[in-house]
Amino acid sequence: MANICRTLNAQFEKSIRQWKLEIERKIKEGQQPNFKEVVNISYGDFHAMGIKYITFVRQILAASAYPELLKSGQLPVDIEQRIVQFFKDWGKQSIGSYSEDYGIGFVRRNVARFIKKRDGGIACDPENIYITNGATNGLQLILRLFDYEEGPSQTGVLVPVPSYTRFRIMVDVAGGVNVPYYLNEERSWALDMTELKRAVKCAREHCSPKILYFINPGNPTGQVMSRRIMEDIIKFAAEEKLLLVADEVYQDQVFGDNCSFLSFKKVLFEMESVYRDNVELVSVNSVSKAYLGECGFRCGYMETVNIDPEATTQLRRLMTSSCHPSIIGQIVLDILMKPPQPGEPSYENFNKEKTFIMNTLARNSKLAVQTINALPGLRCNPIQASMFCYTRIELPSKALGQCKVLHPCST
Predict the structure, then answer these.
(1) How many CB atoms lie within 10 A of CB 186?
(2) Contact criterion met (CB below 8 Å) for 158 and 211
(3) Cα dist. 236→46, 101, 183, 278 in Å?
(4) Residue pair 191/184 in contact by the 8 Å Cβ criterion
(5) Helix/strand/coil for 326
(6) What is the rounded distance in angstroms from the CA atom of residue 311 to the CA atom of residue 333?
(7) The pLDDT of residue 138
(8) Which of 2, 17, 111, 51 lies closest to 363, judged by CA?
(9) Model pLDDT, residue 151
(10) pLDDT value at residue 13
(11) Which residue of 110, 188, 304, 308 pairs with 337 in a disulfide if CB–CB is 3.0 to 4.6 A?
């Protein structure tokens, strides 16, 4: 049965987006009388679904793009001060200018301060921070650091199932081998170390596993990893000499009872030196998620830890040869890293809007789970974080019988 479900899931992921686009095209052309519209619920784009943007962000962006607004007297004084300080620190006068290769220097420093504060004082070197055109761009850059030969030496990338579909496509495009490890649905999508070890052992028969990719908090499964599991993953990576790639874009979007986010860097640096000083780690974050949801501005960052100097040199060469990170995106990222503080004129409204968005996402997630579990043939685990409900479809016995006919080797 597990094999049947995995096959159906893979086929579904490949076809769902094309099917949606085809129906939308037919509706526009008047060829699809059975539907009036298609409601998009498959992406983490809550602005597209009606969630309002944060006013402070858009005021900053508007005046940064059109500085004449600073003379209007319509903006809070802290917004004017912030914009003036941004361009002063940057040393340029227009958002139409190019960025530095790895991101604007003071924005990288603000990212480092954010990470240090988040992790309870653990040091963060701005030289290990790279601003990217979205977290996805950061993941692409990391994949490009590896050689992709054919045969047993071909780079294998351990990828959770279920997971972020686009990453699996990126591995294929890079020339790597997707090595699936299956999360445990019965344990709220927890990672099972026995399953991870099985995946590596099987993969070594046809490729060379070099990267362990994981998403915490989970996408699309909505779970939050425990410290114990994170420590086990770090120890496993040390034993198998794997690069850890931590997709942490939902770190500010945790709302489950008795749940809190721990970064992999924090856990790593609180372990013994044999792990702290040697395990290679890359983590990514983005302005597209949490309370900002600014997907269209395409900006994020990645932090590298214990990365080999030669790999660092190659990473910087790749960034120098590719597109500079967006200036407008870095302005948004700088707000995420350094939001308005108590006592500043914009703080009260900013905090009000942020709280409303977070409460709305938490409330909607619980309502969605309740609704799904009330429907026959559907089941969904409680959501601890992110914005997705990953649903199990209980197939009728006749459908299962037909599956066995079509796939007689499946169980």
Answers:
(1) 8
(2) yes
(3) 36, 34, 16, 13
(4) yes
(5) coil
(6) 26
(7) 95
(8) 51
(9) 82
(10) 53
(11) 110
Would you state the pLDDT for residue 5?
Answer: 45
* Six token digits for residue 13: 């992921």
SS (H, E, C) the chain: CHHHHHHHHHHHHHHHHHHHHHHHHHHHCCCCCCCCCCCCCCCCCCCCCCCCCCHHHHHHHHHHHCHHHHHCCCCCHHHHHHHHHHHHHHCCCCCCCCCCCCCCHHHHHHHHHHHHHHCCCCCCCHHHEEEECCHHHHHHHHHCCCCCCCHHHCEEEEEEECCCHHHHHHHHHHCCEEEEEECEHHHCCECCHHHHHHHHHHHCCCCEEEEEEEECCCCCCCCCCCHHHHHHHHHHHHHHCCEEEEECCCCCCECCCCCCCCCHHHHHHCCCHHHHCCCCEEEEEECCCCCCCCHHHCCEEEEEECCCHHHHHHHHHHHHHCCCCCHHHHHHHHHHHCCCCCCCCCHHHHHHHHHHHHHHHHHHHHHHHHHHHCCCCEEECCCCECCCCCEEECCCHHHHHHHHHHCCCCC
Tokens 């070890």 belong to which residue? 197
Name the residue among 41, 47, 42 with its Cα closest to residue 294.
47
Q: Which helix (H) or strand (E) holds 199?
A: helix 193-203
279-285-290-291 Cα dihedral, nearest 10 degrees? 140
pLDDT of residue 8: 43
In 3-state terms, what secondary structure has residue 107? helix
Cβ atoms of residues 236 and 268 within 8 Å: no
Distance of CA 327 to the CA centre of its chain: 21
Residue type, 279: V
Task: Enter the tokens of residue 79.
Answer: 């917004």
The residue type of 69 is: L
Largest alpha-carbon pair distance within the chain? 73
Rounded to 5°, angle at Cα 330 from 326 and 335: 155
Please, which residues bridge with residue 131 across strands? 301
- Which residues are bridge partners to 184 per DSSP? 190
Tokens of 178: 């997707």
C-alpha to C-alpha distances, 65 to 21, 54, 168, 328, 331, nearest whole angstrom: 33, 17, 36, 8, 11
